[in-house]
């Protein structure tokens, strides 16, 4: 048998060259970096999914004050009953009959009705203030004035629940008001809303 001059043992025990060492080091470093990236990305991905699945945070709105400014003798010298209703939508309220709303309001409006407050404006009373909390499920306010004689009077109005205006980006010092004010005129011809809420 011819001698090839190559020792078989040297083939298996030959030390890796410098290039091979660099390649092995690069591969190990890449594996370590991938592991680190996975460790960082996994919690972020889970947080993103959790954020998508959770419901958005409800905006907390400040309370509002209704200011009723009454003319003298708006109801033929009789007390005028005012009803303030919190509504999910205004369509049912605005289309319902006066006497139906005067009766069982909750039955007429169904699930669109949220809450109601009422008070009397006396003949000599010039103004009345009614403070209301912002209820998340209420989107509209409906106001009903039970005039003694309707005669074409505007006996009801509705408008969206007020929200504070966001200050401009350059008004960094500004903050939302602690209370929102709404002015309502009560006249012999009916109810009139301040122009900014129409």
From TrEMBL:
Give the InterPro entries listed for this entry.
T6SS_SciN (IPR017734), Type_VI_SciN-like_sf (IPR038706)
Top-rank taxon, per record: Bacteria
**Keyword Lipoprotein on this protein?**
yes
Q: Which UniProt keywords apply?
A: Lipoprotein
Q: Does the keyword Lipoprotein apply?
A: yes
Q: Which residues form a coiled coil?
A: none
Q: Which residues cross the membrane?
A: none
- Protein name, entry field: Outer membrane lipoprotein
Q: Which organism is it from?
A: Xenorhabdus beddingii
């Amino acid at each position: 048998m011819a001698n090839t001059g190559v020792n078989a043992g040297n083939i298996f025990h030959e030390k890796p060259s410098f290039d091979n060492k660099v390649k092995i080091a690069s591969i190990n470093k890449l594996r370590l970096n991938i592991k680190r990236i996975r460790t960082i990305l996994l919690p972020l991905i889970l947080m993103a999914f959790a954020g998508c699945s959770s419901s958005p945070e409800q905006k907390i709105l400040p309370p509002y004050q209704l200011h009723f400014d009454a003319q003298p003798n708006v109801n033929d010298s009789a007390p005028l009953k005012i009803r303030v209703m919190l509504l999910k939508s205004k369509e049912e309220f605005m289309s319902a009959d006066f006497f139906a709303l005067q009766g069982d309001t909750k039955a007429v409006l169904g699930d669109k009705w949220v809450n109601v407050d009422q008070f009397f404006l006396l003949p000599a009373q010039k103004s009345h203030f009614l403070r209301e909390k912002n209820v998340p499920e209420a989107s509209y306010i409906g106001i009903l004035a039970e005039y003694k004689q309707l005669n074409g009077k505007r006996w009801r109005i509705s408008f969206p629940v007020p929200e504070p205006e966001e200050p401009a980006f350059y008004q960094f010092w500004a903050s939302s008001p602690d209370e929102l004010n709404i002015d309502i005129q009560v006249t012999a011809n009916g109810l009139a809303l301040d122009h900014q809420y129409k």
